[in-house]
Amino acid sequence: MSMSFERYMLDMVQPMRDDLTRLGIEELRTPEEVEAKLPDAKGTALVVVNSVCGCAAGQCRPGVAEALQNELKPDHLYTVFAGQDKEATAKAREYFAPYPPSSPSIAIMKDGELVYFIERHQIENRSAADIAADLTSAFERFCS
């Protein structure tokens, strides 16, 4: 029995994608999809740079899930997957200047402009509840 590396990676990564898409977060898998959504998103947009690392699984995705239970949240919810949808992730990162590439990471944009950013070093070694608290505070600041 033989399985291609691509098929294996798709099968392994799908549950990590599902952690966010089942919350109603839309995947942007190509640069064209990113370009069609991010610069023209009216109101606020959450963009999660997903990853296969442990801090994405243990803190980032659960923290995002908890924060999205808040009554006030962004108008648009997007995700790109670092290391998997490389071109889409690179395109999304163009909107996160001056921050260097970081995964996982979480951006909040307002009318196409970056207004809030959580880098990997602000995710690792913190709890999902801490991440959720940071996001909830940002939602209240930028989404009202």
From TrEMBL:
Q: Which Pfam families match?
A: Disulph_isomer
Q: Which family does it belong to?
A: Belongs to the bacilliredoxin family.
Superkingdom, taxonomy of origin: Bacteria
Q: Which InterPro entries match?
A: BrxB/BrxA
The name this protein carries in UniProt is BrxA/BrxB family bacilliredoxin
Gene3D superfamilies, sorted: 6.10.250.2150, Glutaredoxin
Question: What organism is listed for this UniProt entry?
Answer: Paenibacillus sepulcri
